[in-house]
Amino acid sequence: MADASKLPPTPTRSPRALWRIGRGRSGGSLGCAVIARHAIGLGHNVLVADGDINNPMLSRLYPPEGAHGVGRPKNATLETCKVWLADTLAKALEQHASVVIDMGGGDRISEELAAESDLGHFLAASNLIPTYAYFTGPERDDFEHMHRIWLVVRFREALACSS
Questions:
Q1: Distance (Å, rounded) from C-alpha 19 to C-alpha 130?
Q2: What is the rounded CA–CA span in Å between residue 141 and residue 147?
Q3: Residue 128: its pLDDT value, please?
Q4: How many C-beta atoms surround the C-beta of residue 123 within 10 A?
Q5: Helices and strands counted in the chain (H then E)
Q6: Model pTM?
Q7: How are strands ordered across the β-sheet holding 46-50?
């Protein structure tokens, strides 16, 4: 019989979807890498989804061929990113895994996805608890980016439904 103290911890919580929001050069990709590494180190099943077309840092740390990596979108068009995100979330649900999502900094994709999709409601209905991590710098444009996302009613409703 195996010694229970040597077995990896069994996750007791529902999987999470950590969504990195923010402009570039604010440490968002690095923050995602640190969070993913910590969760993996604790024995959680985690996928790392690098949707940042301009900065492949996460996919270098967690390549798609590895246990935690996910393939990257082919380009930064909204439709391509929607399909990539849907495929990534489907993979996470299939594997009962949490997912760290980095759509990249300075992008319009997060804003457009917030405006055009019901992502928060989908995540909550799929039992993937959404967690939004906003990384910001000291510039006024950083805060205006965050404010534009906050103004999207669906984004605020998604936060309310996930609470």
A1: 7
A2: 10
A3: 84
A4: 24
A5: 7, 4
A6: 0.78
A7: 46-50, 98-102, 16-21, 129-134
Highest-confidence segment of 9-18, 73-82, 114-123 = 73-82
Q: What distances in angstroms separate CA 45 from CA 3, 28, 37, 62, 89, one per listed residue?
A: 22, 21, 11, 13, 14
**The residue to which tokens 């690095």 are assigned:** 30
Judge whether 28 and 102 are in contact, CB under 8 Å: yes
Classify domain 13-162 by CATH number: 3.40.50.300
Q: Would you give the distance in Å from CA 4 to the centre of its chain? A: 32
The b-or-e profile of 13-37 (16+ CB within 10 A means b, else e) is eebbbbbbbbbbebebbebbbebbb
Q: Where are the beta strands (DSSP E) in 43-163?
A: 46-50, 98-102, 129-134
Mean pLDDT, the chain, rounded, equals 80
The token pair at 45 is 């099943």
Helix (H, G, I), strand (E, B) or coil at 45: coil
Rounded CA gap, 18 and 64, in Å? Answer: 18
